[in-house]
Design brief:
Elements (H helix, E strand, L loop, with lengths): L5 H7 L2 H8 L5 H16 L7 H7 L5 H13 L2
């Protein structure tokens, strides 16, 4: 599988990841790595994992930051 371009990532990127980057909780490269991991797992038939769960597992985001992102995500709807 090739590495997605920035444009492909922005199209694939869940709003969770966009908000986390916007708030400087994670870097674009961390989000890119998490998205690639998510896609590779999906394509190999593993259970789908949310971007936030992947970021949390890697220690790149805290529970408090997850909570803040989710609050912002759901306040936009």
């Amino acid at each position: 599988m090739g590495v997605p371009t920035e444009k492909e990532i922005s199209n694939l990127c869940r709003r969770f990841g966009t908000i986390a980057v916007k708030n400087n909780f994670i870097s674009k490269s961390q989000l890119k790595e998490a998205i690639i991991e998510q896609l590779e797992e999906d394509l190999s038939g593993k259970d789908h994992r949310l971007i936030g769960a992947i970021l949390l597992e890697k220690g790149w985001i805290s529970w408090d930051q997850v909570d803040l992102v989710l609050k912002e995500l759901f306040s936009e709807e």
